[in-house]
Amino acid sequence: MSPRICVQAEDFDGAAEIARLERAGGGAVAGFTGLVRGDGGLVTLELEHYPAMTQTALSALAKSIARRWPLAGLTLIHRFGKLVPGDRIVFVGAASAHRHEAIAAMHFAIDWLKTDAPFWKCETFSDGRQRWIDASRADAERRDRWS
Amino acid sequence: MAVDILYFAWVREAIGKAGETLDPPGTVETIGGLIDWLETRGDGYVQAFADRSRVRAAANQCFVAFDAPLAGVAEVAFFPPVTGG
Predict the structure, then answer these.
(1) Which residues of chain B have a CB within 8 Å of the CB of A77?
(2) Nearest CB partner across the interface for B79, out of A114, A120, A122
(3) So what's the ipTM on this one?
(4) Closest CA to A39 of A138, A106, A126, A144
(5) Phi and psi for A137 in degrees, rounded to 5?
(6) How many CA atoms lie within 13 A of A9 on its CB side?
(7) pLDDT in tens, A109-143
(8) Do B82 and A135 make contact, defined as CB atoms within 8 angstroms?
(9) Which H or E run includes B64?
(10) CB contact under 8 A, A56 and B84
């Protein structure tokens, strides 16, 4: 199983990503897409990242997932740059023989991306305010439940 | 030995640059020691590192604690806790 890992400014096609995983030969595919929410008058969400580290970190994540669950396919896509409400930010998808492994691998991947991938989000609101989003303790607890 | 130092998110904004190559003195032995030394370089650094519980570090693209050694590290990065996903 060779994971598909993309860190990109461009949008992605979630349906095409699911279809690609459906061709991986398993009996189950699970996919998650994260979108920009427009809460509180949010106008843009800018994602900054640490390119040299992002690639390494996502490859390490894919390896640890492959050790935990027998997968037929794994896709991790994370966007960076300036996004607006409704835009897709992240996609994680997993294919396996049975549903449990695909769902667990997908869930683990998104929990881990929240707390261990070197991305930072800066919100800009309609009144011009800008704010870096603080890391969430709840996200860290969710990630820790897997260890 | 010269080390590339990168800054991200509000750490970058406080310091006013995305990165620099510096040659810290030999007495700087750890990542935390590097922060102490950077703080002598100006107010932006002092502001960025004022609350170290809000700052994370990476050495050669891996997360490290502040007591990690600096020896042999070519690239250090300082940033807030990550908020991906």
Answers:
(1) none
(2) A120
(3) 0.94
(4) A126
(5) -65, -35
(6) 5
(7) 999 999 999 999 999 999 999 999 998 888 888 88
(8) yes
(9) strand B62-64
(10) no
The residue written with tokens 């929990």 in the block is A111
Query: Concatenated DSSP letters for A2-18?
Result: --EEEEESS---HHHHH
Q: Which two tokens stand for residue B58?
A: 């990476």
Residues of B in contact with A56 (CB under 8 A): 61-62
Chain A with chain B: Cβ pairs closer than 8 A = 73
Q: What is the mean pLDDT of chain B?
A: 97
Q: Is B83 helix (H, G, I), strand (E, B) or coil?
A: coil
Retrieve residue B5's tokens: 């130092």
* Chain B residues with beta carbon closer than 8 angstroms to that of A34: 85
Beta bridge partners of A65: none
- Burial class of residue B22 in the structure, from the number of CB atoms within 10 Å of its CB (0-12 exposed, 13-18 middle, 19+ buried): middle
Which of B36, B29, B35 has the alpha carbon at shortest distance from B70?
A: B29
